[in-house]
Amino acid sequence: MRWSANTRTICAGLLALAVSGCANPIVRPDVVIGTGTPSGAYYPLSGSICRLFNFDAAEGERRCVAEIAAGPIANLDALRNKRIDIAIVPSDVLADAVAGQGPFTLRGPDPTLRVLFTGHADAFTIVARRELGIRNVAGLRGKRVNMGSPGSGERLGMARIMTALGVTQRDFAEVHELSAAEQHRALCADELDAIVYSVGHPNGLIEDVVRMCDGVLLDVSGPSIDTMLASHPEYERAVIPGGTYRDNPNDVQTLGVRAVVVATTRLSDPLAFDITKSVFDHFDDFRRLHPLFAMLSVDHMADFGPSAPAHTGALRFYRERGWVK
């Protein structure tokens, strides 16, 4: 087949365009934030940070994206392996990563982790079948209990609470490792006696399981929990107000963790400064982006907590504002 000169010119141009397109690599965003599942609060937190950062950036100049992760441990692994630049993790998981303990024992301590700011508090929440007649975490002995999915904040918190109570998995009738959605179905199907969440309140999943499956929230309190809190400053006391959920009229005493926005010393000071500035320069807008954020204050978010030092770039922003010395 013979091609005309015009056809040859067109094809040559298309071939050059195709080769050029293949030769150009996909440009990585300037900031990639590792977050949680879309059903949790970490996902809108990362999305809000990126939205404000991208809003401040000149068009096409810089870009931030959020990346879904399987859990906080996976997030910190991705941060360590340079696949992401920022991770959102609970304060207890961060403390273990810094110290190289718990699920990070084999990896060893990570002295490079740095905090940009903290977010909302998540309350450790255990929901049990009402018919069991138990009101406290100590009543779970001999029951069918979900420990939380591997690598989740729920799993770490549950393990630490069990240690504080002197309880082992052998003290339960059954032990499961289900995700939040799976445990919901299992409790309603009478395949479990108790399930666990680490969430802000009110929460839609808990509302459903209380309403549809007659669940009751358990206190996570007592002298053993007091001792645990005294030795683990990454946790804080929390109260789920009575009446938050139907047929749960009493305050529930429990413990909580803070969502922490964390990077490493690898993140440049100017970039850490700009990310922090984007959030606090539009703080009223930020607080409107999710119901959990409406309760946050500047003092709360600029309190880095005991788990890791503040990033020097974020610290420069706070000092310029006169919020820290």
Helix content: 25-40%
**What's the end-to-end separation, in Å?**
79 Å
Give the topology string: H per helix, E per strand.
Answer: HEHEHEHEEHEHEHEHEEHHHH
CATH architecture of the largest domain: 3-Layer(aba) Sandwich
* CATH evolutionary superfamily of the largest domain: Periplasmic binding protein-like II
- Got a strand count? 10
Outline: globular
Q: Any low-confidence stretches, pLDDT <50, length ≥5?
A: 1-25
Structural class: alpha/beta
In short, what is this structure?
With 325 residues, this protein is of the alpha/beta class. It contains 12 helices and 10 strands. The longest helix is centred in the first third of the chain and has 19 residues, at 5-23.
Secondary-structure blueprint of this entry?
Blueprint (H helix, E strand, L loop, with lengths): L4 H19 L7 E4 L7 H15 L7 E4 L4 H9 L5 E5 H9 L13 E17 L14 E3 L6 H13 L8 E3 L3 H9 L5 E6 L4 H10 L1 E4 L4 H9 L4 E5 L11 E13 L4 H13 L1 H5 L10 H4 L10 H10 L4
Parallel strand pairs: 1-2, 1-3, 5-6
Antiparallel strand pairs: 3-10, 4-7, 4-8, 4-10, 9-10
Report on this structure.
The protein is an alpha/beta fold and 325 residues long. The chain folds into two domains: 153 residues, 3-Layer(aba) Sandwich (D-Maltodextrin-Binding Protein, domain 2); 136 residues, 3-Layer(aba) Sandwich (D-Maltodextrin-Binding Protein, domain 2), CATH 3.40.190. The protein is built from twelve helices and ten strands. The strands form two sheets. Strands 1, 2, 3, 4, 7, 8, 9 and 10 form an eight-stranded mixed β-sheet that branches. A two-stranded parallel sheet has the order 5-6. The longest helix has 19 residues. The protein is globular. The N terminus is likely disordered.
